[in-house]
Every structure is written in C-alpha cells, then in structure tokens.
Amino acid sequence: MDVRIISHTPDPDRVCAIAAALTHSKKKPEEIERLDDETLMSILSRVIDLGHLSVVEHASFTFAISGVSRALTHQLVRHRIASYSQQSQRYVRIEDARYVIPPSIERNEGLRKDFEELMERIWREYNRLLEKGIPEEDARYVLPNAAKTNIIVTMNARSLLNFFELRCCMHAQWEIRELAWRMLGEVRKIAPIIFKKAGPPCKTKGFCPEKKEECPWYPKRDRT
Amino acid sequence: MDVRIISHTPDPDRVCAIAAALTHSKKKPEEIERLDDETLMSILSRVIDLGHLSVVEHASFTFAISGVSRALTHQLVRHRIASYSQQSQRYVRIEDARYVIPPSIERNEGLRKDFEELMERIWREYNRLLEKGIPEEDARYVLPNAAKTNIIVTMNARSLLNFFELRCCMHAQWEIRELAWRMLGEVRKIAPIIFKKAGPPCKTKGFCPEKKEECPWYPKRDRT
Amino acid sequence: MDVRIISHTPDPDRVCAIAAALTHSKKKPEEIERLDDETLMSILSRVIDLGHLSVVEHASFTFAISGVSRALTHQLVRHRIASYSQQSQRYVRIEDARYVIPPSIERNEGLRKDFEELMERIWREYNRLLEKGIPEEDARYVLPNAAKTNIIVTMNARSLLNFFELRCCMHAQWEIRELAWRMLGEVRKIAPIIFKKAGPPCKTKGFCPEKKEECPWYPKRDRT
Amino acid sequence: MDVRIISHTPDPDRVCAIAAALTHSKKKPEEIERLDDETLMSILSRVIDLGHLSVVEHASFTFAISGVSRALTHQLVRHRIASYSQQSQRYVRIEDARYVIPPSIERNEGLRKDFEELMERIWREYNRLLEKGIPEEDARYVLPNAAKTNIIVTMNARSLLNFFELRCCMHAQWEIRELAWRMLGEVRKIAPIIFKKAGPPCKTKGFCPEKKEECPWYPKRDRT
Q: Among residues C98, C63, C23, which one has the least CA distance to residue C182?
C-alpha cells in the first residue's frame, strides 16, 4: 500500500479559521484575513470543540493510493462525500498477478503458498481469455477481490473526520483501517488543529458506539 | 439478475407535480393538492421539458437487486446520490460457487467450461480457508469479481434520470446496462411522466456526447 | 406555521428493516421480505442502537410547510441532504402583507404595533414598485425576513435524524425549532422505530456538545 | 459586491489531469505525475470534451464574497454540492443600513430615494428593537432581502461548471448572474483548461434548454 497526498488546500487550518471567524463577525473577509494566527487558531479550536464542523469543509485533500485491493476500494467508494478516480479494469489490462495477501493467510506458510498458486492460476486464465479475444471488461470477471488497484481520492476535512471515525476503529476491516491511519498521519502534518482529535469514536467521543467489550482499546476508554 | 421495486413514493408523478406548481403559485399547498390531474401533469411535463429537474427529487424508488456480480456493484455504488445496503462479504459466508458468467464467455463452450472450473477451484480454496480458521473478511480475498451479491438501492427520480443517461448507453458495461434498462422498465410503469424521456443521451438529448461513430444507435439519432 | 406530510415511503420501518437484514444474511431479498414483523423490527432497533444509520436512508418523507418566514427557510435550505421546492419571490407577486412576528416582539404591545406598521409600510412600497413597472424579482428586495413563504421539503430519515439533532435543540432559533418538533411529531407516527430516540443530542446522546450551562434542559441530562 | 478567491487547489488543471490519466493507465500515480504538461493537458481536454466531468471534482476553489444581498445568498445556498460559512444575522448586529439597490430601482431617481428612505426606516426600527432588549435573531425579522451579507463558499470545479450553466444564463437573476460571471473570471485565470468552455448552456452546449425566444443571446447561438 502506498499513500501520498498529491494536493491539498494550502494552509488548511487558516482557511477554515477564517471561515469560522466570518460567521460571527461584522468584519469583512479582508479584515478577518489580517487577524494573527493565534487569534484565528483559537477560534478554530473552539468551533471544532463545539462540534460545528461545517467550517472544516473548506479544506480538501487529494490522496494517491496504490497497491490496495479491490476489496478495499469497494468499501472506500461507499463514502459518498468524496471524489474518486480509479484505475479501470474495463480498460486497463493487468497481465501480471498483482494482489494483496491478508496477514492472517500470509503468516501461515501452507495457506500462503496455496493462495499464491491460486492467484497465478487466476491470472493465467485471465490472460488466456484476453488471448481468445474476450474484452478486458469481461475477462476481469475472474479477477479476485485481492487484485491490486490504484485510486485518487479527494475528501474535504469534514468527510475525512467521519471517514476516520468509521475506519480507524478496531471494528473496521484491517486493510481499510491501515489506509485510514496512514491518511490520518498525513493530514495531521498539514492541518494539526483540524485533525488534532481525529480517530475512532473511543478517542474522539470518549465512548464506543459499537459497545463491543472484546475490543482491546475499549478498557483504555473506560479509564479516561 | 433479479430486479424488483420493493417500495416507492406513492403516486410519484403527482407529488412532483405539486412541488412544481407550488414554486410559481400564490396558492397554499392544500389548494395545489386539490388541482385536477390534467392540470398538474401538464405543469410537470412542462417543467421537465425545460430541464428543471429538481422537482422530481421528491420521488424515490427502492430496488431489491439480487444475483448481480460484485463487478457490477463496484460500479453501481459510485453513484453517490443514492442509498445502498449490500450483502456483506465480511460477515456472510457464501459456501457455494455463485457467480455471473459474461455472455462473451458463456457462448464459447470451451471458455465457459474453463471459467466454471476456475470458479469451482476458487470456492474450494475459499471454503478451505474458512475451515482453517481464516475469517470470512480475509477468505473473501480469493473470491472473483463474478461473485454474486444482493443489494438494496434507493434513488430519487433525478438521480435515476442521471443513472439512466450513463448506464443505459451502449458504452456502459453490459451487466450494469441490463440492470439500468430493467430499472427503467419498472419505474416507467409507476411514474410515466417523470420517466417518459429517460434513457441514454442519444434518446433524451438527441446527441451522443461520446461521439463514437461505431455505436449502432448513433445513426438512429441522426435521422431523428 | 402549517406542517403536513404529503407523501412518504410506505411502511418506512419495515423497508429499512429489510435493508438492515439483507446486509448480514445469505437470504435473497424475497425471503427477507417474508420475515415476520417482530424479527424485522428487532433487527432494525439493534442496528439503529449501534449507530449504523445508513439503512434508514431508504425511507423518505415529503413535507408541505406553509406560513413560515424567509428567515426560517434560509436556514432550512442549508441542510444539503434534502430536496426543496420553494415558492419563488422572483415570479410570485405577494400583494398583501403576510409575515411572521417573533413572540418576543408580539408579547410587547408597543413593539408589536410598530412592527405591524413597518410591515404595512414595506408592502405599500413593494406594491408601488410593482405599479411603477419594477419586476417582482427586484421589488422583493424591500421585503423583510419576516415575509411568509411556502416550501415542500423531502428528506430521508437519516438526514431528518441529523436535522432533529441540530434544530430541536434549545440553541436552535425558535421558529425552525418549532418546525423541527412538529416534523418530528409527524414522522414518529409513521416510523416509530426509526424515530424512537430522535431529538436534540441531550436526548439522543445523553450529553450536550454545546456545553452551555444555562440551557433549561441541561440539568435533566446530568441526572440521567 | 466583492468577489475574491482566497484559496484553491494548487495547479488545478494538473491535478485533475493526473486523475484522468490514472483511470486508463497501468502506470502508478508517481509515474503519471512525471508526465509532461502537454501530455497531461491533452488528456484532460479530451476527457472534459467527452463530458466525463468527475475528474474535475479533485480541484476546489474557495471564494470570499462580500456586499451581496441576502436575496442572493438564499439562492446561492440552494447549490448543495458546496460548503458555506455565512455571516450570521442571529449573532452579528448590523447597526448601519447596508443594502443592495437593484439597478432597475437605482436608475429611477424617485424610486431610488423612496427605497433609501425605506431602508433607513427599517434599520431605525431594527436598532430600536435591539435597544428594547429584543435579541438580534428576532430583530432581524424586519431586515430586508436587500440587506448585505458576507459569505465564504467552497465548490469543486464540477459543481462550479454546473453553477455557471445555471447562473451565468440570461434567465438567472441579475445579482447572482453578476456573481457567477465574476467567479468564472477568477477561476479561468487559475484553471484555464477546466473552465475553457464554462458558461451558460447556449455557450457550452450550443443550445438553450429554456427555449425562450426573447433572450438577446439566443440568436447568436442559432448562428453558430
């Protein structure tokens, strides 16, 4: 999995702070833009603490994500307040077996070997179908959920906060959870105020809506 | 593929017509609701002809779709102005090989046999992984795009009109195109005014934005 | 203010319950639809309790709202996951002074009288502008926030739950709060399971994100 | 009216071009990012010409807009694929009469004078209500549609293209049309490829969906 921010709203904390300040001020935008950073950041922090998250929608982040499975992207694109451009299996021919192995399978020598053999077998059939004149969009029906894909994703900060709540959680599927934590690591460097308290609900809200006692994070929450 | 409407806004043409009438009228809603059907339908037709489609958002349709491939649903859920509830491969164990065969493969005896054998081989491995204690959410990495799934979809009429423009088109992938035409057949029975001119752009707009000369429908458009 | 549901997904609790059941079941949609009401409603309740609210998006409600101020509708239409058809001040000529008086003004005899006189004065000018040939869309610039308007609104149940959290709250503006409580009263009759715990966060979540000590509801929350 | 871009995706044409290229390429994102500008821009132009506009969603623009009427913003915020932070009349006290005069009124000496007098009268009453202890959120009920407001708006390029189609049109209301053309002027400097053909449908599509013969632009379209 490779996750990189390839573009983002410059100085996202500042833009969102200006928007927050404008709503409760007589001042014109150009005057608000001249406020010092300390004033602006304290306004932004207060507004986020109150849960008034619409102001952070003004900041967007574009990620280039590669080497993730189609199992992951089928989940990812369910997040509707976002923009996606994905490598198309209808038009792009992937001759070589390129796939993600779940850790639970990889750590078992025998299962791993069988998994890899099956992947090779699948791609042989895929290539054979193409040779026989079957179009890519039909040959791909044999390709597995494990098949690697590339995708460019843009989300605004509010949608990202929601994404992190759902996908950084221990109940999220391991591959999309890894993606979520890596995305969070990246955005935090760029917008430290906006994402200061981002993460799963046990971190952000102090409680677990899933109410699953077996979660290893659950007790930490309780002691807070 | 099985496609059925399991719920919808009752009398959708009428509800949207009332909304259309309200915007340009002094009358209160209860007076507009008493207008006769002929008046209301003529208002709705005129508004739709002008391309003012926001009024048809007041009508929603819920489809139960089963026996379609995960290749299809990965495309389907890219339509963001819609609501989805899909059978989860993370939690539901699908022991038997249940899959969609593309017609281009099915019509070739040899390719079809190999395809079926590969599917059986994949599901054997899937079941073996489960027996070895691998969770469903990881075992599913071997499952193919062809794997069948069930999904419940709700879209409002405006989002459906857009869906039909994109997916009834000859350039759409065959499986989602079949779904789109079947959905269109169903909604037309219930909302004949709203969906009177629904379909691909060559039907609705009289031109092909894809500009692909090789389309078999393209000449028909020209002669209109 | 007049608030009426003029259309809705029939049997909304049931449709959402079917969607919830489908996601975790091997069963085909038609089998799930045959499940008895008790089973379905218990599935729906559990899913809502866990905060998995996407399933309630399958139910939509259409409200005819009349006699509310343009101050209210300017706030209302900020809710983006919704569909609106509003009486247009650009095209509809409102000759008579029709307006909402805030209770804080109405209860003071002197202020009320002055308010009413100003309204009459405004509408005289509005009608005069029209007589002089000024188009409706320009004459309306003199009309006040208090001017009454009619609007038809469709929201799905998930968007409504969010609307109620924000607008049933004591910190919401009084007019939209009245609207929100009346809408909640209506939908609860039709979808008792979905809206069982709907309302402001102090009711639904057991805490106040606004953290305002002066709220009369706040202590009740604390004692829970 | 003052319209300024205060933030935007850096190099928006390039980011969208990378997204467009990725969908039909075997290459990894980092390889696509190394493509030269000419190649990327030709891919982007082709994709936009085909009407595949999802790729331009990756670019966002944030505008600070001040000195527009509340009549305008009530229309503006109806565009739902956008983010807004507006100066609140509930919390911000606007002591001085600050308002927009429609040109049709301004150019008539007598009407203009009466309009201005009415505005002064309205603000006197507004200030008097505040003095009497009426809260801002209630006193504002007397304020007119003409009252000036400030708003920060973020839209992605796809949503902007749609906004321009609707609001640059001669049938749009004059104030929001002026805003739309000024926003278009700004974004074109920053993203010349994306917005090359932006504007009303008679410019972008070569026909008028409104079918109104009296439009002064209409004949130009016909001669094209």
A: C63
Q: pTM of the prediction?
A: 0.96
Which residue type does C15 have? V
B46 contacts D209 by C-beta, under 8 angstroms: no
Contacts of B114 (CB under 8 A, 6+ apart): A125, A128
Among C127, C142, C157, give the residue marking a domain's end.
Answer: C142
CA D36/CA B114 separation, integer angstroms: 44
Where would I find the H helices in D98-154?
A: 103-106, 109-131, 136-139
pLDDT in tens, B40-93: 999 999 999 999 999 999 999 999 999 999 999 999 999 999 999 999 999 999
Chains contacting A (3 or more CB pairs within 8 Å): B, C, D
* Distance of residue B62 Cα from the nearest chain A Cα, in angstroms: 18
Instruction: With CB atoms and an 8 Å threshold, state whether A70 touches B145.
Output: yes
- ∠ at Cα B13 (B7, B15), nearest 5°? 80
Q: Are residues A20 and A44 in the same domain?
A: yes
Q: Which of C93, C148, C144 is nearest to D146 (CA)?
A: C144
Whether B95 and B64 map to the same domain: the answer is no
**Count of Cβ atoms closer than 10 Å to residue B216 Cβ:** 7
Q: Identify which of A89, A105, A122 has the shortest CB distance to residue B118.
A: A122
Which residue range(s) make up the domain with C195?
A: 2-84+148-223
Query: CB of B136 within 8 Å of any CB in chain C?
Result: no
- Whether D147 is covered by a domain: the verdict is no
Specify whether B70 is catalytic.
no
Quote the ipTM score. Answer: 0.94
